[in-house]
Amino acid sequence: MSRRMAQNRNNKSTAEDSEDTKPLMTEAGNRPRSSSRDVPLGDDANDGVNVFFAKAFANNPEFFKQATKFAACFCGLQASYLTWGYMQELIMTTQFTPTERVPSGKFPSAAFCVFSNRFLAVIVAAIAVRIKHGSIFSN
What we know:
By secondary structure, this protein is mainly α. Helix content is 59%, strand content 0%. 0% of the residues are buried.
């Protein structure tokens, strides 16, 4: 065991001392791009994201259309969630006319507020499906 450990130590020290070894990461202007072990630092115009988008556009001409649709859906959902949160907060913190059942004048049930929102969302979704596909339950 100790003989192997000594050989491993000697091999490591000779590899470290060798001038032929190249560092994995170097500065942008001084490194050749010949080795596959080099770690790109993101300075080349042909690296990373640019290559990804160039290949995506070349291989799939619908990529930009799909990406734009995805971004629009994402923004629409975020706007919907923000509007829902704002309206719920507005309803829950507004002082209404106090009654016998709710002497504080605050909206009494957060669960009912959320249920009403989900119920309305199901109705709107059913209308959208009916408009787009002609029927709600057809195969």
